[in-house]
Amino acid sequence: VCEDVVVDEKRKEADAGEVLEGGDGSGDLTLSQLVREGKKKFKVKNAGSSSGVDIDVLKGAVLRYARDSNNLKEILFSRVDGFDCLYRKDTETLAHGKCVSVDVIDCYAAYLNREQVRRGQLKRWVFYSGLAQRVQGIVKNEGPLPNFFEETDEIITSCKWIPDGLDFSQCDYWMFPHCSDDHYRMYVVNLKNKRYDYLDSLYPDDLDSKFRAVADMVVRYATEYIPACRKEPFKFEEFKWVRQRGVRQRGGIDCGVFTMNFAEFWDGKLHPAMRNWQRQINQRRDEITLTLLLNKENSVLEEVKKKSLEFDRKVD
């Protein structure tokens, strides 16, 4: 059973989607870039030095270089440890009007996780999208608990999803992005509000069997894995699925960006600031591109900056 949380019918639908009352749109729930004087200003977190080059010039060059249709196998982002690698064929999907690749979503989720660790503020933990499919197979076969733990632990550690020594178990929101039929959705174990949240920017009228299959996986993950790593007891049998119908995409290919927004900003409730997500969708695509490629953790950062500026000079 999945209950609906819907907007007040008396409230007019905003041009970017329906929103619930509540929240002031402040804090980390607003998009981190603003439009001023007709120019896009991006806040690139942990960006490397621009080496004397005007930062706006560098950002523009990087965006154009990342979306060039040539040499799609060139690596534009890679962590020093070799994990979370993005090729141009991935970054090119962040261009306006394209369907975002799953590798982009996973890399951005990993970035958000590491940012929380760096700040020492664990609130959300986003698992990589492949976890849902892998664990689904275990749930379907109803494997014994030891096998379940071995499989999930192997997946997590092999992807460096949980840094050594990190206790992520105190996070309020365990988030599982999932893609089926070329559509991304987010499943959330909401420990703070003691429920399961289903975030789908397309507002399906019916919850199909594919939703239920992943939902069953999330429930089993919650009931069998969380109690083993958290001391406080949870009555998961009382948790209900709640479909949060407050943020709606208008573009047919923007679900991946909405999923990344949920990963970064979801705190258990819908806020008025979220009504701008569709209107700012292209800004958001640009911001995510720049945040990943100009991040200090990018082992090919200097090469990307150099080649981007050279590419711009050739085009000019």
UniProtKB/TrEMBL annotation:
The keyword Protease applies. InterPro entries: Papain-like_cys_pep_sf, Peptidase_C48_C. Residues 84-266 form the Ubiquitin-like protease family profile domain. GO terms for cellular component: nucleus. The keyword Protease applies. Keywords: Hydrolase, Protease, Thiol protease. Pfam families: Peptidase_C48. GO terms for biological process: protein desumoylation; proteolysis. GO terms for molecular function: deSUMOylase activity. PANTHER family: SENTRIN/SUMO-SPECIFIC PROTEASE (PTHR12606), UBIQUITIN-LIKE-SPECIFIC PROTEASE 1A (PTHR12606:SF1). Belongs to the peptidase C48 family. This is Ubiquitin-like protease family profile domain-containing protein.
